[in-house]
Amino acid sequence: MEEPLDNWFKREILAHEAMLLRYLMRVWPRKHEVQDLRQETYARVYEAAMTSRPVSPRAFLFTTAHHLMTDRVRHERIVSIEAVGDIEALNVLHDEISAEQLVSARQELKRLAAAMDRLPPRCREVMWLRRVEGLSQKETAERLGVSVKAIEQQVSKGGRLLAEYMLGEDVAVSSTKREFESDDDRGHGKP
Amino acid sequence: MDTESHNAIDEAAGDWFAKRESGQWSADDQERFDRWLSESPHRVAYLRIERVWERAERLKALRSPVGEVPPPGKWVLSPFFDPPAAPAASTPDVGSGMPSPTEAVGRAVAASPPGVELFPSSDQQRVKSGRLGRRSRVGYLALAASVLVAIAASVAWYIHSPGSTYRTPVGGLESVPMADGSRVTLNTDSAIRVSVTTKERGVELERGEAFFEVAHDPSRPFVVHVGAERVLAVGTAFSVRRDGDDVQVIVTEGTVRLEPGDRRHGLQGDREPTLSNRSSSGPSLSASGARIDSSSAGSAVVVLPAGSIAHADEAGVLVQEESPAQAEDTLSWRAGVLVFHDMTLGDAVAEFNRYNTRQIVIEDPAVARLRIAGNFRATNVEAFVRLLEHGYPLRVEQQEDEVVLKPR
Which H or E run contains A38? Predict the structure, then answer.
């Protein structure tokens, strides 16, 4: 039963990441916490789905995020009381959220290509050879004249960055981006 | 809250993923991996990467037959495709400062997010119709890719053309990618004109407010022109707000130089403000609330570090130093939210009114002096006044085109 749950999660939950980030950015005042909220929301959704899968995954995802924020506001008292009221009042946001667009094959390809091009040059090269040309890690290392370990590091970074670029689309969540600014192989930094 | 941050988890997930893909995977690895994966935050982080890796397989459609890694933005220029049709009919005379079409395509592809309509629709249609004849030979995905190139070309053209103007209506919020990788986010009722040359990346803020995230490029300073007097240069992330001749600058990252402008040079000016050689000559600002008198200083340059909030008007420049986090709060409009910290209701309402055609009116000065704090959706007037009615000695009078706040 485990494997199907993973597939379910990828298809029904991760597909809404960009929208989830936008929602969190809109209602949560501390932007550097948004990625942590995103992750905790996912973990809660996954755990709940182990017991029983929600009928409407998207609604469940946003409700979970909403509860998480409400819990935090009450627990940590980090925002003034009006914020709670406003989050409640902003339930209308769910209407906006339902206006999801279907991604066409063309848009998907465009988005993938754009995400690839945002990778640091060396990282992009490695990801291309591994994923698109289908070279093994060893072949890639030989081709580029670097160690196998270096390829593995690039794949680790590339996978992480592509997840951010693809799933989060272009939602500007600043906390994770600064980390990559110092990459020496990065052509010109995008803030 | 879990003690482990998303960054640490995402990094670990990336490492596990790469290890698993490496082809060197032992039973011991599997055991450790299973243990790591048993925690939900770990598992969901791993699933994200796996999901994207699966989707990336589609890129094989754009693979080059010779097995070379195409340079960024040029992956579509395989022998299957013609070079992108330059929008010759509509290309303005831009002189030698223009990047070559392929360069422009590369940068535009890298910079353009999905769903932002930057190109004139007529261009897009022309491009599509010019491509249809090739469908039978190159197949569906190839067609898709060539349309993509052509669209990117028109995006590049649009961004590079002199005086591209972007506007938002009241209540609008829009993020515009620039061809150099920078990004401009426009607040409500704002207008900018973008002009990128080989010497300068210039933006004129005609009205309203914009937030700039500047891509690093020492050879071309990023300059925001505001009104007749001032030029703002450099920095990595900052906002500029214009209220008539009053200008507010908020710096969240890097450094910004605020200098008196010279309109005669305009957007295409050959003056090149640079970061390094002149910033040391500017006054150093350590005291909170320092006022620099521009009349006595003539062409005084003010250097603003991250966390600065500067107000410039006829009388000079007033600089407040806040923490970068506080400066960020002031820019919460980028998420459609207004964050008030102990503000007078009068000021808060003035802020709100920028975002809505339905205006809130306060007639009683005592009401305007009430203090307020909180987070509010900028375009949700009704939620805002409802909360006011609950928490303050006020009553709300709904009139035809305005909302009046009265003492209760």
Answer: helix A34-51
